[in-house]
Design brief:
The protein has 657 residues and is α/β, with parallel strands linked by helices. The protein folds into three domains: 167 residues, Substrate Binding Domain Of Dnak, Chain:A, Domain 2 (Up-down Bundle); 143 residues, Rossmann fold (3-Layer(aba) Sandwich); 242 residues, 3-Layer(aba) Sandwich (Rossmann fold), CATH 3.40.50. Helix content is 49%, strand content 9%. The chain is built from 27 helices and 15 strands. Bound molecules: iron/sulfur cluster and Broken Fe4S4 cluster. Broken Fe4S4 cluster binds next to helix 14, helix 21 and helix 24.
Length: 657
């Protein structure tokens, strides 16, 4: 590609205009010199369709596609008579269905793997966390006392399978939902059945000529999203912990500087941890390490990206090269000897970039082939057949690397791996693990509230910037931040995952961070691990003092740079669980319509949370803090309690109580 011609024809923004990630910016510049285009360039040259952005069009049948007018939303209806509210609710519903299907299919794959590990058909993996196995089993009423691990595991499989297949009745993890939140769900008829049923019903209801009442469609959106958050996603997280280990804090390097010039560099990018786990075994295989050395390398360097990268970073301290919007840029370094992907958030554009640098791009999951990429099928029953072959391909590419490689020498070390369980231990210790100290610090006002800042990065906004500014603003105002997914990587690159970053927090949060020795934001893993935030929220309710439902907590959520349908499903399950959830970038809806009013106000009146939207990070922070303050006031804890110094006698009296 002739760079000058590209520049002449297309609008080329300066990289620093669309990303604050220095490594990504440098690679975009190098890419332009090399004649390589990325999604940043394509976004700058392709305006979003304004009708689609408002969700004011429908192509559900061949009488259309029908376009309505967002400026006069009730001036026109579709050929079938569908109103703007029906059209928007159906489009929204299909996003929820797709997002929920992605997470639940991932969760079901983990459960399939678990079943075959337990029954001995798969021997390359094992149950690593027996303690967690027992805890999860107990949480859904399975007897564990004096029983064989295998028997408990078999019962757990049978129970959790219902998360997907259950035709009638409530799914198992509903037992973890605070009673009052569950009452709201029951009253509104949104307690989820199995995810297969919910997704199927939502797709059916959004078909031409079926559900044409936006309120009724929204109910099924909630029910389907809840089958993801408290169902498919939660199973994915819990089973992955049982099989591969529950995360606990670990120091990890993040950013493109984790690539090593003299090593065979292999990147794994995607969402399911099983292939990545097998890759860890392959890169440590002595014969392959020897082969890499024979090829002139010092060894093999395994690095993660995106969400499976976030999981492996949290569980095993595997270094992480960057989030979704850096996946093309990292290939431009020329230093990647193989990129191996599985499912979700894999840009098709990677094929061309990989081709330019002679990097093998390898798809591994039968659900995800990409035209132009090499496919090596990954089979849990013989996982190393695939991952060994990837390593061999990477070694061969190392031998034929392009002369010029450029690795931005930027690494940000931080502490990751704050699972729900570790937070419990960190705050309360081994014998008194509890969320009570967190609740106490919220009640006494040191911590103002809790925010879940999650989700993707998106070239329609300045990459990483919205995440970073928002989180800085929140911690400055004493809001403790829990994170997952690509957002966690944005903040890690900004240096906020060190205990020293506590100096950016307000005085109260700073004091708590310094006492416990924790960073002001806590990374909980991948986007499927948002279920950890739900469990933490439930625990805060159960511990007491902050109301009886999740909706009463001084808490809020946000995906400030979201892009995927999974994010919409996540947003809807947080809203349906009671959380005020603000999205940035854009929101697929026409304002001043009945559907808009329902999502942004009406759901809260029904006892759920509600949606919010703003592009500006400071405005988002203001909205979230205002909500947290409103909840504090409703709980009667709006005036920080006077701090009383207690002596040993007081402490003994408290312990006795
Ligand atoms: Fe148009 Fe109705 Fe068909 Fe949608 S379902 S394309 S609104 S006619
Ligand atoms: S990978 S869904 S860009 S968080 Fe989970 Fe990142 Fe969003 Fe994909």
């Amino acid at each position: 590609m002739d760079t000058k011609k590209v520049a002449a024809k297309k609008k080329l923004l300066k990289p620093e205009d669309f990303t604050i990630c220095e490594a990504t910016a440098r690679m975009i510049e190098k890419g332009r010199r090399d004649g390589v285009e990325t999604s940043f360039d394509r976004a700058a040259n392709m305006k979003p369709c304004p009708i689609g952005a408002d969700s004011a069009c429908c192509k559900h049948c061949s009488m259309g596609p029908c376009r309505l007018n967002a400026k006069d939303p009730y001036g026109k209806v579709g050929v079938c008579g569908a109103t703007i509210d029906t059209i928007m609710a159906r489009n929204f519903g299909r996003m929820v269905a797709a997002g929920a299907a992605a997470h639940t299919d991932h969760g079901m794959s983990m459960l399939d793997l678990f079943r075959d590990v337990v029954n001995g058909k798969i021997t390359d993996y094992e149950i690593k966390d027996v303690y967690k196995l027992e805890k999860v089993a107990q949480s859904i009423g399975i007897e564990t006392e004096g029983r064989e691990i295998k028997d408990i595991a078999n019962d757990l499989y049978d129970e959790l399978e219902r998360t997907y297949t259950q035709v009638e009745g409530e799914i198992p993890f509903v037992s973890r939902v605070p009673e009052k939140t569950l009452e709201t769900w029951r009253k509104n008829g949104v307690v989820p059945r199995g995810a297969m049923r919910e997704v199927m019903e939502l797709i059916h209801r959004t078909h031409m000529g079926v559900d044409q009442h936006y309120e009724n469609i929204t109910k099924q959106c909630s029910r389907t999203a809840l089958s993801d958050g408290w169902g498919g996603s939660m199973v994915a997280t819990e089973i992955s912990d049982i099989l591969f280990g529950t995360p606990s804090p670990v120091a990890v390097d993040v950013n493109m500087g984790v690539l090593k010039e003299n090593y065979v560099n292999i990147i794994v990018h995607g969402h399911e941890p099983n292939m990545f786990e097998s890759m860890v075994a392959s890169v440590n295989e002595p014969t392959l390490v020897e082969a890499a050395k024979a090829a002139g390398a010092e060894g093999i360097n395994l690095v993660g990206m995106c969400c499976s990268g976030a999981e492996m970073m949290s569980r095993h301290g595997v270094p992480h090269a960057g989030n979704f919007m850096s996946t093309e840029a990292v290939l431009i370094t020329g230093a990647v000897d193989a990129m191996c992907v599985d499912v979700q958030c894999i840009k098709q554009g990677l094929v061309k970039v990989a081709e330019c640098y002679g990097t093998p791009l390898i798809t591994t999951n039968p659900r995800c082939h990409i035209e132009g990429a090499t496919h090596i099928d990954f089979d849990d029953h013989n996982p190393k057949a695939c991952t060994d072959e990837v390593v061999i391909k990477a070694i061969s590419r190392f031998k034929n690397r392009p002369a010029e490689i450029e690795i931005p020498n930027i690494r940000n070390t931080g502490i990751h791996g704050f699972s729900y369980e570790y937070i419990n231990y960190m705050l309360g210790g081994t014998f008194r693990g509890s969320y009570k100290p967190l609740n106490d610090n919220i009640i006494n006002g040191r911590i103002r509230g809790v925010a879940g800042i999650v989700g993707c990065t998106n070239p329609r906004v300045k990459h990483d910037w919205v995440h970073v500014e928002l989180v800085k603003e929140l911690i400055k105002n004493d809001v403790l931040v829990l994170q997952t997914g690509c957002s966690q990587i944005s903040l890690a690159k900004a240096g906020l995952y060190t205990p020293e970053a506590a100096h950016l927090a307000g005085a109260g949060l700073q004091e708590v961070c310094e006492t416990v020795g924790m960073p002001p934001c806590l990374g909980m893993g991948s986007c499927v691990d948002n279920s950890r935030i739900l469990i933490a929220a439930s625990e805060m309710v159960k511990v007491g003092g902050l109301g009886n439902s999740i909706a009463e907590l001084p808490a809020a959520g946000c995906a400030p740079e979201w892009m995927s349908e999974k994010a919409i499903s996540i947003g809807q399950y947080f809203v349906a669980s009671g959380v005020y959830t603000v999205f940035g970038v854009s929101f697929p809806i026409v304002e001043e319509t009945k559907f808009h009013k329902l999502l942004f106000e009406g759901l809260e009146a029904q006892g759920f949370g509600k949606w919010g939207f703003a592009e500006d990070p400071y405005e988002i922070a203001r909205m979230m803090i205002a909500h947290i303050d409103k909840k504090r006031k409703e709980l009667g804890i709006d005036k920080a309690r006077e701090r009383i110094l207690i002596d040993m006698a007081d402490r003994r009296a408290m312990d006795a109580a």
